Amino acid sequence: MTLPVLKSASLISVILLATTACAQPSSADATSTQPGQNSQSSQTVEAVSSTVDKRLRQVLTQAGIKTQITAIVPSKLPNMYQVDLAGQLPLHITEDGKYVIQGELQKNPSKRVVTKTPVRSTSAQVGKPVSASVKSDMLANMAALKNMSAKTPFFYTAVPGVIWGATLEGVPFLLSDDAQYITDGEISVIENGQFIGLDENFEKRKNQSVFATLDKSQLITYPATSAERAVIYIADDVNCPYCRLFHKQVPMLNAKGVTVNVIGYPIYEASPAQMRGIWCQADEDSRRQAFDKAMLTGEMTPASANCNTDHITPNREIAAGLAVMATPAIYREDGVLYQASFESPEFLEFLGIE
């Protein structure tokens, strides 16, 4: 039985492949194992106490895992245990049985430069960006990986020592805070004996951290035209058909007290240059008018000859921390992502308005 609550797995090759020839992992480090193969079987691992083994088996069985558990060993992810399942990808689970990741761990082929154990996070740091020192040490240990840079977003999770990251394209992954092991799973929660989905508390707090970091002067804002009752953020592309459909609803939302903050999030090939033209407009009103024209009529406003600044990319890179799967991606101010049709009455309920 596979976990039904996980997002579609991203391709870990996005960050692990395209290393230089001299940085490729040795055969002993290669982790392109088949489902159910123990990626730690070639290494000596410490025993797990019978008490922990029994508890974790009971938790997973109660939560609906019917697949045979072949072994439980300490995980290479800090503060977690690896649960090997017959014919399926392993699980990684905290000792209290609350947090679970499904996925094969990949060994980072980079040379390990920083060997000290990082200072582990606290519950108050969940969803916060990692500290500058932790990020610097992690990146020092990731030199052979493509798509990793000082701009890569990294956040503390609810599991001390396990870090959430995303490529600048918004592909999420998890890794140990020493950057030695990476997986493309995400953290799910078991509560009252049931899988309840992704760790929503982390997702909310992470998204709030992203919103707080955005350059507000580079958002296109449509303020509420009645007493403000809700604020939303939307990752938008001018060539996205559903983004254009949503834009037609903005006046109605404003009238109902909803302030709409647009994050320029180009995903179509022509969009970066076209959206740069919109964001190059001289003032907020002109930018808003140019955006309206693009969304409602398809007419793009070119950048003026003297506009040499890219106003789109900085917020687009910060918004990679939202791990946008498709546009329009609509979030409440508290960080919750809306995951149904915005044309449904449920959308106004989601916003807490009639």
Given helix and strand content, the structural type is alpha+beta
- Helical residue percent? 25-40%
Order of helices and strands: HHEEEEEHEEEEEEHEEHHEHHHEH
Number of strands: 15
Attribute tags:
single chain, 354 residues, alpha+beta, 5-stranded antiparallel sheet, 20% strand, globular
Helix and strand topology:
Elements (H helix, E strand, L loop, with lengths): L12 H4 L33 H13 L6 E6 L6 E5 L2 E6 L5 E4 L3 E2 L24 H9 L13 E3 L5 E5 L5 E5 L4 E3 L3 E5 L2 E5 L1 H14 L6 E3 L7 E7 L4 H7 L2 H6 L2 E7 L6 H9 L4 H14 L15 H6 L10 E4 L12 H7 L3
Parallel strand pairs: 13-14
Antiparallel strand pairs: 1-2, 2-3, 3-4, 4-10, 5-9, 6-7, 7-8, 8-9, 10-11, 12-14, 13-15
Describe this structure in words.
The chain is an alpha+beta fold. It contains ten helices and 15 strands. The chain has helices at 13-16, 50-62, 132-140, 200-213, 241-247, 250-255, 271-279, 284-297, 313-318, 345-351, and strands spanning 69-74, 81-85, 88-93, 99-102, 106-107, 154-156, 162-166, 172-176, 181-183, 187-191, 194-198, 220-222, 230-236, 258-264, 329-332. The strands form three sheets. It has a six-stranded antiparallel sheet with strand order 1-2-3-4-10-11, covered by helices on one side. Strands 5-9-8-7-6 form a five-stranded antiparallel sheet, with no helix packed on it. It has a four-stranded mixed sheet with strand order 12-14-13-15. A hairpin with a 5-residue loop joins β7 and β8. The longest helix is centred in the middle third of the chain and has 14 residues, at 200-213. The protein is globular, with a radius of gyration of 22 Å. Residues 1-12 and 17-43 have low confidence and may be disordered.
